[in-house]
Amino acid sequence: MGKNILIAGESWVKHITHMKGFDMFTSIEYETGVKWLKEAVESGGFEVTHMPGHEVPDNFPFTKEELNKYAAVVLSDIGANSLLLSGDCFLRGRVTADRCKVIADYVSEGGAFAMIGGYMSFSGIDAKARYGVTAIGDILPVAILNVDDRVEVPQGVTPRTVNESHPIMSGLGEWPHFLGYNKTVIKTESSVELLSTAGGDPFVAVREYGKGRTGIFASDAAPHWGPVEFLEWRGYKKFWAQFFKWLVKEQNGK
User: Fold this and answer.
1) For position 197, which CATH number holds?
2) Staple partner for 79: which of 52, 129, 155, 166, CB 3.0–4.6 Å?
3) 32 φ, ψ to 5°?
4) Residues near 232 by Cβ (< 8 Å), separated by ≥ 6?
């Protein structure tokens, strides 16, 4: 599987309407929010392949064999429809692979998978991300709600570490504040470990699944839920490096 980590999502296109008196026109802006996470993961000795959201429907791997070249797969702020509805399926009516199930099979046979929070993660805004009704919902350490799961905290919420002895949390110290997160419910399987909470809800959690591992981070890795205080936190790179080293079973040789 090598050292390459695939991060899918973390991009968006804005279609803006400008109104000036009698007249109006539109413009389009394309943005990505992956640079902070990418740099942090690379600081842990990994390589990163970023697949922007608009490329996912047609370019995300369709087979477990294709996924096997990655040490870990990450979905960040991109909904399940982008994996389920490729151009062949949605536009041309052809049978295609359920790539949520492909990810689950990849993990079961030794792969690593993480979901990072956002408006189109877990259940997401207006419950449009829909991962709770896919095979990805089965492999996570948390149960996904079937409603809009956003917890907006404009006044800030500071996570609390509940398992300081876990390799992922080693040496991090106090968390900075966040401006929101996706609400989930921790599962009760013995393979599940809750590492951090926010507002009493799971914030960082991991589990063993089959021969592989999965993990969740319930907030943004970048703005807006992850504010500048998080991006500039001395533990930012350390946390993500340790998170992925554990997922791919590099931490302490385990």
Assistant:
1) 3.40.50.880
2) 129
3) -130, 155
4) none
